[in-house]
Amino acid sequence: MWTTLRQQIWRWRGVLITAPSVAGGLLLLRCLGALQFMELMALDQLFRLRPLEPADSRIILVTIDESDIKQLGQWPMSDAVLAQLILSIKQQQPRAIGLDIFRDLPVEPGHSELINVFTSTPNLIGIEKVIETAQGEVVQAPPALEQHNRVSASDLLLDTDSTVRRSLLYLSNQDGKSIATLGTQLALVYLKKEGIQLETINLTKGQLRLGRAAFTSLRPNDGGYVGVDAGGYQILSNFPKLQDHFRTVSITEVLQGRIPQDLMRDRIVLIGLTAESLEDKFFTSYTTNSIAAPAGVEVHALLSSQLLSAALDGRPLLDAWSEPLEWLWIIFWSTVGAVVGWVSRSPRQTACRVTFLGVVLLVGAYGLFLVGWWIIIIPPLLALAGSAVTSNGYLLWENLRGYARNLEQKVEERTAKLGQEIVERKQAEDTLNQQKQLLQAIVDHIPAMITLYNAEGKVEFVNRQCEQILGWTTTDLHHIDLIAACCSDSEQQQQILDHMLSATGAWLDLKIRTKDDRLVNTAWANVQIAERLFVGIGQDISDRKRAEEASILDERNRMAREIHDTLAQAFTGILLHVGAASEQITKKPASAQAHLETVEELARTGLAEARRSVAALRPKLLEEGNLFSALKHLTTQMRATTNTNLTCDIIGTAYPLPPDVENHLLRIGQEALTNAVKYAHATEIQVELVCEESQCLLRVKDNGQGFEVSQIPLGKGFGLLGMSERVEQIDGELIIHSQLGQGTEIVVIANRK
To answer: How far apart, in whole angstroms, are the C-alpha atoms of residue 195 and residue 188?
Structure first.
């Protein structure tokens, strides 16, 4: 038996160590009050999550706000006005009237009238401040009400964060006399007519009964409180979460008789202040900001409503477990957490289980809260999580110790083999060095530029041919970024990087800068030789480029001569025949007709030659790429010569358009860019080519000076006129939006044919 017990203790050693350790630490923190604030915040959250309840129709508030004070013309209001107010309320025959206004000193005129009202109103309850302020001051009750024992305390209990979570039912004044608070006294007066009075169940334990409700006086360590001042007779506030506020009327409405006749009949009427300037605001568990904080009169009304609902309707009061039971609650969850951490195979499994059990704990606490029990939440949650993490960590540490022992054995076995492996590795290194030297010699003598770079585009090696052409050595690569050094344009740098990392083997022509600041025409192809290793192969194509340019120049000169020999001769012949025809058109019509036929033939021939020449003279930018690349080249050129911020983007996938359409769109874009920089003085220009299924849109937008399109004088605006003519030739649509000081937007829509 002892052996079995020892085995079980050893099996669950992590739980037996962790659970009491974590629980003991948390109990110590709780006794020191370190967790009180978090527990009170959790209680507030439970209050805010509870369902809404309708406002208590048994309570009416008569409030005094800023507009009422302006209407009265003074504050405090005179005794005459207060007497008139109470008489107006008294006429409606309320069951109890609570005056939440201090009146220890007369405010003339009308003091004698007010004393008569105090004396003749048996259900009127006044207030006094019993608990001394920080300056040691109290406020006495009105003498006339004190003589008739119709005085209550206005004091409210505030926690350290100035929030009302506890309610005073009774307290002792300076004379040692027990006095009820205002909310309590009003509720007792109301319930007295229902035949309900406060009864003592157990005076020693502070247990009282009021109708269907049984009260237990708050103890210093109830719920989340630790060592709280439990003087007087206190209970936990269980104020209702009101869907609407209490029925409220203003003092002005009462004095002017603008309230329903039976509004206050057989109800509790509370008179109090809500004006912001009088600073009578208090935080409750429902309050999230100072704007929504209820006034003191509303807090007294909430207490009265809580007592009435408990006594008449059986609404649960808020109670807490005894302190030993709360200790067992913490120890229980600490044990649960320790078991979860000890039996879980991984931290992720531990986290999932702790999360599930934490949700169970929170849901259970919320359910008990709804039926009137405040159970602590923060210490059990910390016990659950802390024990789970600690026990699981201890388990992982023990596993690591086992792994360490196994590792030591493997290290010893491995050490025995290291001698042989070292010899073999030395031989392999010698062979590798020989092969490396051979490969280096081969690479250096290849008549092409070779670069070696990683997956981030960082060049790590260049061969001798590359050093001779570009000037950068492998040693330089440790201190510079070769792409940035060879190209200053950020867009071209990105183009080079994309081409390098795509490693398709395709050739890309690049004009790059050498170390001695020369520009060299090169062509590059890239291949991937390992997971994160690439090789770039480059050639110097400067001679080929010069040959191509010379060939293009010769071709253009040839075409110029051809135009001169064809079109010029044709138009000269047309002019001669037109002159001859004009002389003979009246004298020899037949001869004139022959001349005109010759003119027509020459014109047709010239037109055919013109079309052939135009096709041959298509813009060079469109010859070398598509419309988007041509626009991109234009913006790049203009960006280099101006401080304007130019962007060129394409939306959709580019597709070829008829040559004349691409030519007109390019020229329109060129004209719009020139106007925006030269005349509009724009600082930002956006060029967009939108390729849709049925049409292609060119949009040029700037933030320049702008102009009124309708006010362009005749004979001006040749650029806009040229744009319009080009758009008409391609059967497109031109849209111009512009206003003075708001920039210009030009949109050309061309149908896809």
So the answer is: 10
Helix, coil or strand: residue 172: strand
d(CA 751, CA 427): 71
Residue 391, token pair as written in the block: 């026990």
Q: Cα 467 to the chain's mean position, in Å?
A: 51
Q: What is the dihedral of CA 462, 465, 470, 472, to 10 degrees?
A: 40
Q: In what order do the strands lie in the sheet with 59-64?
A: 151-153, 124-128, 96-99, 268-273, 59-64, 247-250
77: DSSP letter: P
Give yes or no for a contact between 153 and 179, defined as CB atoms under 8 angstroms apart: yes
- In a domain, residue 259? The reply is yes
Give the residue numbers spanning the domain of 654. Answer: 621-751
Paired sense of beta strands 744-751 and 733-738, if any: antiparallel
Same domain for 201 and 298, yes or no, is yes
Read off the pLDDT of residues 548-583 as tens digits, 9 standing for 90 and up. 677 666 666 566 555 554 555 556 556 555 666 666
Report the number of secondary-structure helices (H) and strands (E) in the chain: 23, 26
Residue 587 has φ and ψ, to the nearest 5°, of: -85, -50
pLDDT tens digits for range 66-91: 999 999 888 899 999 999 999 999 99
Which amino acid is present at 234? Q
DSSP label of 316:
P
Alpha helix locations (H) across 109-197?
111-120, 143-147, 182-192
Domain boundary among 616, 646, 663: 616
Q: How many domains is the chain built from?
A: 5
* Same domain flag for 205 and 332: no
Report the alpha-carbon distance of residue 183 to residue 156 in Å, rounded: 10
Q: Hey, what are 746's tokens?
A: 């030009």
Whether 131 and 250 map to the same domain: the answer is: yes
pTM, two decimals, is: 0.55
CA distances from 745 to 505, 645, 681, 735, 737 (A): 41, 16, 14, 8, 5
> How far is the C-alpha of 342 from the C-alpha of 11, rounded, in Å?
10
Q: Which of 147, 145, 106, 143 is nearest to 126 (CA)?
A: 145
- 63 beta partners: 250, 272
CA 588, 589, 594, 597 dihedral sign is positive
Q: Which two tokens stand for residue 571?
A: 């138009």
With tokens 């109990």, the residue in question is 27
Backbone angles phi, psi at 138, to 5 degrees: -130, 165
Question: CA-to-CA distance for 99 and 405, rounded, in angstroms?
Answer: 80
User: Cα-flanking dihedrals φ and ψ of residue 295, to 5°?
Assistant: -75, 165
Structure tokens at 224: 């989340």
